From TrEMBL:
UniProt GO MF annotations: polygalacturonase activity
Protein's cellular compartments: Secreted, Cell wall
Keywords: Cell wall, Cell wall biogenesis/degradation, Glycosidase, Hydrolase, Secreted, Signal
SUPFAM superfamilies recorded: Pectin lyase-like
The protein, known as: Polygalacturonase At3g15720
Main location: secreted
Length: 286
């Protein structure tokens, strides 16, 4: 299924502004992007990113993805560290992934658009990010890796017919942590797995059980409304050795997309609290 979202990601925001210094603004069109939906604009985006990432430390550079355009991007990584501690990516236009499987040859299918070692990043705007059904977001802890993720905010999004909504997934056997993650002000339209923490991620269903895991903590699901394609609308499935801690579910109303089932919740070793939620999340441990 395709994922269309008007999306706001705010990661590790630290507001610092230079005084009297011109703030760099880089439009991807000025770096050679075409924006016709068929031309590969990946290299133009990377060129624009190089300018933004190289901006002075006392500035807040902005990468402009202009509205009215559709940009085709093959898998790419925006590398840091950058000169500035605050970077703004403004998504006005639409970004689409390749639709042909051959376009993914030589790339990791679990990663489409990656920001690596970038602090103080804000990505916002009214543009759509359409993954064309590809696995554009990777999973933490794969192959026993140590991964660290924190201060992630996903706000003001619409998940329309998507395979997953507000989801956190980690492989068994990894280490590290994922904490201070917020999903709020989310609209769901006939979504599978609307709210889902999965510390047992295994796409091929042939993984061995392992005791170690990436720790998941300080997670907020708030103001999430809409319809679910599955009965278990809220799943919080956590590792028995570590579990998930301080998981909060607040002001959630997820109803069934059809009349033949009702939505329910399911938990495993998840600790936290719930208030004003439909379905109720009585399975959370204190």
């Amino acid at each position: 299924m395709e994922l269309y979202s008007s999306i706001i990601f705010m990661v590790c925001i630290a507001a610092t502004f230079g005084s009297g210094i011109s703030e760099p603004i880089v439009n991807v069109l000025d770096s050679g992007a075409v924006g016709d939906g068929t031309t590969d604009d990946s290299q133009a985006f990377l060129k624009a990113w190089e300018t933004v990432c190289g901006a002075a430390s006392d500035t807040t550079p902005t990468l402009i993805i202009p509205e009215g355009k559709t940009f085709l991007l093959k898998p790419l990584t925006f590398e840091g560290p950058c000169g500035s501690t605050t970077i703004h990516v403004q998504v006005g236009g639409d970004i689409i992934a390749p639709s042909e499987l051959s376009d993914w040859d030589g790339f990791d299918p679990e990663n489409w658009i990656v920001f690596r070692d970038v602090n103080g990043l804000t990505v916002d705007g009214n543009g759509q990010i359409d993954g064309k059904g590809a696995k554009c977001v990777g999973s933490l802890g794969k192959d026993g890796e140590f991964n660290v993720v924190e201060e992630i905010y996903v706000e003001h999004c619409t998940f329309n017919g998507s395979d997953n909504g507000a989801r956190i997934k980690t492989w068994q056997g990894g280490s590290g942590y994922a904490k201070k993650i917020t999903y709020q002000d989310i609209t769901l339209i006939n979504t599978d797995n609307p709210i889902f923490i999965d510390q047992f991620y295994c796409p091929d269903d042939d993984c061995n059980n392992k005791t170690s895991a990436v720790n998941v903590s300080d997670v907020l699901f708030a103001n999430i409304y809409g319809t679910s394609e599955v009965d278990t609308a809220i799943q919080l499935l956590c590792n028995g050795s570590f579990g998930c801690t301080n998981v909060r579910v607040e002001n959630v109303n997820i109803t069934a997309s059809g009349s033949d089932f009702q939505t329910i919740s399911s938990c495993e070793n998840a600790h936290g609290s719930s208030s004003n939620s439909n379905p109720q999340v009585d399975c959370l441990l204190s």
